[in-house]
Specification:
InterPro entries: AA-permease/SLC12A_dom (IPR004841). Residues 7-442 form the Amino acid permease/ SLC12A domain. Its main location: membrane. By secondary structure, the chain is mainly α. The chain has helices at 3-14, 17-59, 66-73, 76-105, 114-130, 133-162, 191-202, 209-212, 220-249, 256-259, 261-268, 274-306, 324-343, 348-381, 396-413, 420-453, 459-462. Helix 6 packs parallel to helix 9 and helix 14 (348-381) packs across helix 16. The longest helix is centred in the first third of the chain and has 43 residues, at 17-59.
């Protein structure tokens, strides 16, 4: 992959329904300015995370990414835990997104069953990920840039409406962004902003996919830092811009904020078929995010097999050098997640979603922790100037990430709506760690020997 393809992969994972739907809820509770502050804090945090990941990925570009780094610089048990958490994050999202795409398609094809569309989109993802890597890269580039330009178009149209260059139908909000502070900067106090910060952090999850793709990247020492910077700049511009437009054109009491803010604003601009346009954009958004997630999750399975932590058979690669059984397991996990969302929505599926939210914070902590330990080890034997890329302000950068993420975890415990993420996430992580220590640590060497005996392809074949 080159820089542009890395950016597309990361944008594909990050830009999801979170930016198209969630900010409206936050604006109603925390106000537009409070929501912007929350997203800016989340942006600072993810910037620091990506600095840590860039240093690790440039020095050691591997397909296993933070699974490899945790194994080497923290503890193999921690690597085992974070790999499975990350895999679960994307398989759970896959099931949810497939179901949502099926429901959205019924707007145009009400007679067709939802499961048929789930199967259709799932099959396309499987084909794109099992074929040549260029198939996946091209598909992800197209879908990622479509939704990126859709957001840019929305921001430009919205800005012209705010400044009254384009007359908006039925607009009752103040002109020139006056609506943002009409009821005060923080109309409901600081409390809702703090709660929004916890969720805003998750809006940037997926940016770390750049690290997962490092082992399949051309010239990683230049491509990875460049892709990280450009991705974050785009995300911050799009996210903050969209929130400001929503807050300026929709009053906090407007129900459209909690339902379909994009449709409402495009409708006010007099754009015909606004609802159909946004329906199509949402389908593309969900497909792109799921496609990127399948890519990342299948690489985690390969990495687990490569380390001898699961059966070496999962390390088998296709003739194109792609993880066949890792992909099959990921698609099967997505199918099970989809079934749980239909038949066990208030039990198993609720627990899986909570686990997914917890996993994002866990991954970021592990990235910073691994970089902190890596730099300490590197400095003992090498001149720090020999590193091709260095995260700035060491050790402050990884320490801030760890403290901020731990604070988010503690904050989740005080939020009744998000507390289940801790109730499920912490015990499950401890279970995985205990399982590794009891069953995997002793047999790891045996698995690794079996991996080699079977002649399975290793990291070099990805590169």
């Amino acid at each position: 992959m080159n820089t542009n393809q890395l950016i597309a992969l990361s944008l594909g994972g990050v830009i999801g329904t979170g930016i198209f739907m969630s900010p409206g809820y936050f604006i109603k509770s925390a106000g537009a300015i409070g929501t912007v502050i929350a997203y800016l804090i989340g942006a600072v945090l993810v910037c620091l995370v990506m600095q840590c990941l860039s240093e690790l990925s440039v020095h050691q570009p591997t397909t296993g990414a933070f699974h490899d780094y945790a194994n080497q610089y923290i503890n193999p048990g921690v690597g085992f835990v974070v790999a499975w958490l990350y895999w679960l994050t994307w398989t759970i999202a896959l099931g949810s997104n497939l179901l949502t795409m099926g429901v959205l398609m019924q707007r145009w094809f009400p007679q067709e069953p939802t499961w048929l569309w789930c199967l259709f989109f799932g099959l396309i993802m499987f084909i794109l990920n099992i074929g040549n890597l260029s198939w996946f890269s091209k598909s992800e580039s197209i879908t990622s840039w479509v939704k990126t330009f859709a957001l840019l178009f929305f921001i430009v149209i919205g800005f012209l409406m705010v400044t009254r260059i384009i007359p908006g139908h039925h607009i009752q909000t103040a002109a020139n962004f006056g609506e943002l502070t009409k009821n005060g900067w923080f109309p409901h106090g600081i409390g809702p902003i703090l709660a929004t910060i916890l969720t805003a952090n998750f809006a940037y999850s997926g940016a770390e996919m750049i690290g997962v793709a490092a082992g399949e990247t051309k010239n990683p020492e230049k491509a990875i830092p460049k892709a990280s910077r450009r991705t974050l700049l785009l995300l911050i511009t799009l996210f903050i811009g969209a929130i400001l437009i929503m807050g300026a054109l929709l009053a906090p009491s407007d129900n459209a904020l909690a339902t379909s803010p994009f449709v409402a604003i495009l409708g006010q601009a007099g754009i015909p078929g606004a609802a159909d346009i946004m329906n199509a954009i949402l389908i593309i958004t969900l497909f792109s995010a799921s496609n990127a997630g399948v890519f990342a999750a299948s690489r985690m399975i390969w990495s687990l097999a490569d380390k001898g932590e699961i059966s070496p058979k999962f390390g088998k690669l296709s003739r194109h050098g792609l993880p066949v059984y890792g992909l099959i397991l990921t698609m099967a996990g997505g199918a099970l997640s989809l079934l749980s969302s239909i038949y066990a929505a208030q039990t198993l599926y609720l627990a899986l979603n909570a686990l997914s939210a917890f996993a994002v914070v866990a991954v970021w902590i592990v990235i910073a922790w691994a970089q902190l330990n890596f730099r300490k080890q590197y400095q003992k034997e090498h001149d720090i100037k020999d590193l091709k890329y260095r995260a700035p302000l060491y050790p402050l950068t990884p320490i801030v990430v760890i403290v901020a993420c731990l604070a988010s975890i503690i904050g989740i415990g005080f939020d009744s709506n998000q507390r289940i993420a801790l109730i499920i996430g912490v015990p499950f992580s401890l279970f995985l760690y205990g399982y590794y220590q009891i069953f995997q640590a002793k047999s790891k060497g045996q698995y690794h020997h079996e991996f080699s005996r079977l002649g399975q392809t290793t990291e070099d074949d990805f590169i």
